[in-house]
Amino acid sequence: MTESQLPDGQGISAELARILFGPRAERIHEPWRRLFDGPRFAFQEGLSPQERTALSYARLHFVNEAAADPVALASDIESLTAMHEWAGVVDPGMATIASIHWNLHIGSLLDHDPGGHDLYRYARMDTVGTFLCTELDHGNDAAALETTATFDPVTSGFVLDTPTPGACKWMPNTSGTGGAKNAVVAARLVVEGTDHGVFLFLTPLTDGEGRHYPGVEVRPLPQTAGAPVDHCATSFHDVRIPFEAMLQGEHGRLSRDGGFVSALGSPRKRFLRSVARVHAGKLCMSAYSLGVTRHALAVTMRHSHRRLTSGMTTGRKVSLIEHRSHHASLLSAVATTYAATLLHREVVRRWARAGRAQDEETERLAAVAKAWITWQARTVMTECRERCGAQGLLLSNGIAYQLAANEGTVTAEGDNRVIWVKAAGEMLMGGFTPTAPSGAPAAERSLDDPDHLQELLADIERIWHGRARSRLRNGRRGDPLARWNGTVTPALQLVEAHVHRLAAKALLGAVETASDARSRAVLGHLHRLFALRQVRAHSGDLLADGRITAAHVQALPDAEEALIEALVPYALELTEGFAAMEGVLSGHPMLRTPLPAAEMVPA
Question: Are 374 and 409 contacting, i.e. CB atoms less than 8 angstroms apart?
């Protein structure tokens, strides 16, 4: 984004936008921001779920046309996640199928050995890609899925089958809507009766008219509460696919005579390598949630400055934002959103530097951040919806529709709670070493000191790590489930403390990158507010551990209150720094006074 495309430089919003979107925003974010702010993506009132789904597929072609290289987009994690940040604001359904098409489908094809696949059909969007992994009976335990791809030694091809009703692929977008579709299907490779584990197989689903090929059984599912997408239950009955359909790599290669070799001895590791694209998908889901959250806050903050309500004296009107009961929660939400955005930027940068050679720590950080960010999006958007009253219920006002759709991100690419349970286990088994406590006496430390606040966040990590390790060591012997059940609660607290510290660190790091004193001061206030809320939530533990004093505990409410008061004058500039799409904002009835008669719905 150029200076002219960012918010008015009279205040600090332009500088805040520069910090949030980075030095390469003009290349990475601005093309998507321009695209989705156009009339092709304007909200359309009164569509049925089926009509919204069809519109989402039509819009997918516009996205494909706008991409400089539609195939390479799948490998450019910075541009791919940026697309998600802006797409969800205008069309959550389109954002969902775009994520499946580019990240899960094309990304999986690119991440495996070249197999003679015609990727240009995707560049032309002659075919839409989808991804079939989860089954009705196998969600979080997808490694145990039942779908089989049996090698046929006569043709050197495979026979794809769904052996039981519970093995149907659950919820992929496999209807005839959208035209020709290909699927990447996760199935167990069976060769002469030997199960070699789960691999991916490229499988045609529908022709150009949306007709399903023989043996592909698709049953539309009931409407979900989230984005309207053509979710279906999909089964395969003696579907024959060629040898080239198998996506091969070092994790597993099959010769045309049925010989199998793998660099990974464990079937579970083969499965994880096959579906590795799901890890990048976590960054995409986080990006989607961040985009819709920032937009919801921008809408709510503008509304709060425009909407007049009663003051404390008769006949006096004041804007909503002047009330502490209104602006305190919003400013806390702004602080969280800044921290979450900057944490996401850091994870994406780490992912981009590593390329395909991701390490376990980066993958875990992407997973932990995904769960926290999508949960925070729910909390913040719910607050925004409530602060806008009945206006916030209108889908055309850009909050309620996206809030419902965000529920999909909580489950997509791994259920949040399951993600954190896995991360907790890894952190307890050597994947995390707590920071040593500061040697400075607590009484000599100040809640005004950002470094001290970061140390306190590290103290919270250490406290919960110690408790979880103690539970694990002293748990019931001979009963692994009971032992883990006794450990998991403090272990999850450890993960939460960990991500809060990292998000606060990312926000604090942004303070020094600001080019002017006012921006640094405001970002510093946001960091302190974000950190103090976490310190307050764990003040009892910190006091018991000698990390803070009783005076600190007593000072916490006033310290937060003072930060809120200092930030109120900058409330609008803080959300203008989100660089929300002006065309989209102008289309929200809530931000136009009065409501146009054409948009009034008869009783």
Answer: yes
